[in-house]
Design goal:
It contains three helices and no strands. With 70 residues, it is mostly helical.
């Protein structure tokens, strides 16, 4: 039983982890660690980016706007 069995992961994460595992001959743990680190980096990047419109602000922009309007 590998790490990917019984864990609630999105199909994209599972597919990418399986691809990495087979292509680079690494363990379930290593492939999932890499994929989840990429996901974490994407979330951080989306939180800190400046959006082009105020209709869909990023996390920090939304906090800043909320503080200004108080």
């Amino acid at each position: 039983m590998g790490l990917m069995n019984g864990v609630n992961l999105s199909s994209d994460v599972k597919d990418l982890a399986k691809e990495l595992k087979s292509e680079y001959k690494i363990s379930d743990f290593e492939s999932l660690s890499l994929v989840l680190k990429v996901e974490q980096n994407e979330l951080i990047k989306r939180g800190f980016l400046i959006s082009s419109t105020d209709s869909h602000p990023t996390g920090l922009e939304a906090i800043a706007m909320a503080l200004v309007f108080k």
